[in-house]
Amino acid sequence: MPAVAKRVKNLPPYLFARIERLIAEKRAAGVDVISLGIGDPDEPTPEHIREEAKRQLEIPENHRYPTSVGLPAFRQAVARYYARRFGVELNPEREVVTLIGSKEGIAHIAWCYLDAGEVALVPDPSYPVYAGGTILAGGEPYYLPLLPENGFLPRLEDVPTEVARRAKILFLNYPNNPTAAVASSSFFAEVVAFAREFDLLVCHDAAYVEVAFDGYRPSSFLATPGAKEVGIEFGSLSKPYNMTGWRLGWAAGKEEAVEVLGRLKSNIDSGVFQPIQYAGIKALDGPQECVKEMNALYQLRRDLAVAAFREMGWKIDPPKATFYLWLPVPSGFTSESFAEYLVEEAGVVVTPGTGYGRHGEGFFRVSLTLPTERLQEALVRMKRVLGKVSF
Ligand code: MLT
């Protein structure tokens, strides 16, 4: 057998694939597992979006190859969304490309910019695809610690100058997965200045920009003056419209990055099935009450989870955005041993912080994307096995 390519050998198994296997094993052994693991909305895609997909499915032209960079109508809907929601003007032909979910675009942008041994700045902890995409492209991640004392923002001034000079990409993601932190417009302005100084492409993952609470409305990185000259933003229909399985997203912003990503993709995939893109147009252009209702539901779950964790001894503030809680593990545990303990003793799956990088040690993530009664049941079980915790 030929040897597997080194860059694939270096790739760790995908975090949520490992967790899925663990859940399947436990269920096969008869355990009633409750998963607070992957952030996969449990409610169905809203009806008006499903109806549009059904209607479009009956149109024969939609059964053929889609254009690889996306339907002009979908890219126009993305541009309208940016104008309406963030006051950002985008040229839909040149500054937007459709993606088969933002995950593949994030991995492929690393292929577009990194030659072997070149550096991408990757937050730690972060969504595993930033590092994974970099490694697959033959590049090297340089990790930027996200620490509680910095509000889980990277300290750009701490990046050694010689590393910043060698780096070509800076990955960022606010509202943040896994820490649920949010970024201010002044932080984004600092990012633009840093990218200009070191000639970097900023790749901002905005998957959670619509999942926010208590009246807070996160902004787009592209709304920062100068952002479009240094960066692209990855958008996703998955989280706001409960469409994770549909695989639909986009990249928008810097024209060269959009063009090169579209060119790479047209060589390796054939785009998104058109009925799905039409459903996406319906989602973006249609009534937004469904997004508000989902946020109200996550807010309710957030509040009851925060109250339960506080009763157990955690000192936590309710996050302003995302459907995650990022919590310190009690004393005597590592991230892994705590996650293992909860599965074994309570049948509850949480994600160990180390799944998102070395600096995730000492934390675990709870996802609120499960029916409220199951979340309550998970919290009751955790209280039963943990009692009062200390740190
Ligand atoms: C997560 O749980 O971190 C996300 O749902 C994973 C993803 O978006 O692929």
Automatic annotation (TrEMBL):
One of its GO terms (molecular function) is L,L-diaminopimelate aminotransferase activity. Keywords: Aminotransferase, Transferase. Coiled coil: none annotated. GO terms for biological process: lysine biosynthetic process via diaminopimelate. Its cofactor is pyridoxal 5'-phosphate. PANTHER family: AMINO ACID AMINOTRANSFERASE, L-GLUTAMINE--4-(METHYLSULFANYL)-2-OXOBUTANOATE AMINOTRANSFERASE. This is Aminotransferase. It comes from Ammonifex thiophilus.
